[in-house]
Amino acid sequence: MNHTHPPTLVCLCADAAEASAFAARGEALAPDLHVEARVEARTAPGGDPDASAEAVRTAAAGRPVHLLGHGAAAPAAVALAARRPGLVASLVLAGPDPVPSGTPLGDVTVPTLVICGDGERGTGQPYAGGIRDAVFVTVDGAGRRVHTERPDSFDAWVRSFVQIAEGLPRRAENQRRAS
Questions:
Q1: Is pLDDT above 80 for 4?
Q2: Which residues contact 170 (CB under 8 A, 6 or more apart)?
Q3: For the chain, which has fewer Cβ within 10 Å, the N-terminal or C-terminal residue?
Q4: What residues does 94 pair with on adjacent strands?
Q5: To which CATH superfamily is domain 8-178 assigned?
Q6: In the chain, what are the domain boundaries?
Q7: Are 149 and 143 in contact (CB under 8 A)?
Q8: Tell me: the pLDDT tens digits for 30-55?
């Protein structure tokens, strides 16, 4: 990873308490990642569905971001990744709520990690099964709040996944040059 300008991980959360918890993860993930935690507008009462896209665009500063959706914000993160793949380098769904009907899982084309506690497999598996080539990980001894219940495991998975996603465009370019 480029440590001069680390990749940005934008965390969409359903409420301010979760946004605060993810902001705290940013300290643990630095210097490998720059973390921005935001309350997802579509999960807030009367929220603007385009506000998250604008917030992500602002955080992106001209580069695609790695987008994380937690809990009730996971479906909105999926929709954003599906509708604006040029804005999203990869998608991480952490402890997602059940998949609402109409969530465009099949339209997601970016690398995706679904990470859940072992007590939450039932909510994560439909996301992983509906998104092509998604990686599904369960963390022993954790529930929906895997990022606070098993932070070291969570951080290691997210850091590794983003590092892999960051390398994919270079690998594709090297393969094009070799052929």
A1: no
A2: none
A3: C
A4: 70, 115
A5: Alpha/Beta hydrolase fold, catalytic domain (3.40.50.1820)
A6: 8-178
A7: yes
A8: 778 888 877 765 554 444 556 666 66
